[in-house]
Specification:
With 108 residues, the protein is mostly helical. The protein contains 4 helices and no strands. 3% of the residues are buried.
């Protein structure tokens, strides 16, 4: 029996039941949940880096977004509020479309 010990999507138990598999889960306390979301973010980023094509990359990026939104909620931000903060930062600093790579800055 494989042991996972990791945070999974909410509907995974239903998927396992549909496959008539026996499993064990628990509901995490808030402080543990936040740490597991951080772990999940690292896992999803690694999976994104290992993606073999655009479709796999899109799937992993969607998972990353889901984790980021959940992490935002642990800090008291709704998805809309988090996107508003993103928009404000984008307006102030820009995005990453221009591919600017900073080499160094000289002290004056």
């Amino acid at each position: 029996m494989p042991i996972y010990n990791k945070l999974v999507h909410d509907k995974i138990p239903a998927v396992l039941e549909g496959k008539q598999l026996t499993y064990n889960t628990k509901i995490l306390e808030d402080h543990t949940y936040k740490q597991e979301l951080i772990n999940k973010l690292a896992e999803e980023c690694q999976e994104y880096q290992a993606a073999n094509n655009n479709e796999e990359a899109a799937e992993e990026l969607a998972d990353i977004l889901e984790v980021v939104i959940a992490l935002g909620k642990t800090h008291g931000y709704t998805e809309a509020q988090l996107l508003s903060v993103r928009k404000q930062k984008r307006n102030n600093r820009g995005g990453f479309e221009n591919k600017v790579y900073l080499i160094d800055v000289k002290d004056n």
